[in-house]
Amino acid sequence: MNQESSGSKAAVLRAWEAFGSRRAERVAAVLTPDAEWLAPPGNATARAIGGEHHLVGRDRIVRFLTEEFPAVFVSDVTVEFRTVVADGDIVVVEERMRATLASGRPYDNDYCFVFEVRDGLVHRVREYMDTQRGAVMFGR
Predict the structure, then answer these.
(1) Tens place of pLDDT for every residue, the chain, 140 residues?
(2) In whole angstroms, what is the distance from residue 139 CA to residue 87 CA?
(3) d(CA 109, CA 8)
(4) In whole angstroms, what is the distance from residue 47 CA to residue 65 CA?
């Protein structure tokens, strides 16, 4: 792995730690001001927060990760990394997330995230998951 790839991978792993902290200042510190987070339209999490699946701007992503996400996935959130691969400024993370939903139901789904890193910060996240499985777990 070249130096750029290893720096991008380290930036994404730092970002995951910040995301898990649920602390706004830590999350903001790992994102570019114009960061974007794109998820599949109609995914269960987006529907739970009002239907928004394309988040634009650092402040909007911080609000999602520190206020909205914890209101949906209320406890027992665990993330198991399966693969983390970097090529230049692109980092792909394959993972499994488990949690307890606000309804008390268990949640367990597989994800793939494609991160674009710019100047050591997360600039864009493209999120992929099994949307049908998520809908079933949300009871929809």
Answers:
(1) 677 789 999 999 999 999 999 999 999 999 999 999 999 998 888 888 888 899 999 999 999 999 999 999 999 999 999 999 999 999 999 999 999 999 999 999 999 999 999 999 999 999 999 999 998 998 86
(2) 38
(3) 25
(4) 15
Overall size of the chain counted in residues? 140
Look at residue 15 and give its three-state secondary structure.
Answer: helix
Name the strands in the sheet holding 121-129, side by side, starting at the edge strand that comes first in the sequence.
Answer: 54-56, 31-38, 121-129, 106-118, 90-101, 73-87
Q: How far is CA 131 from CA 8, 28, 72, 119, in A?
A: 28, 27, 16, 32
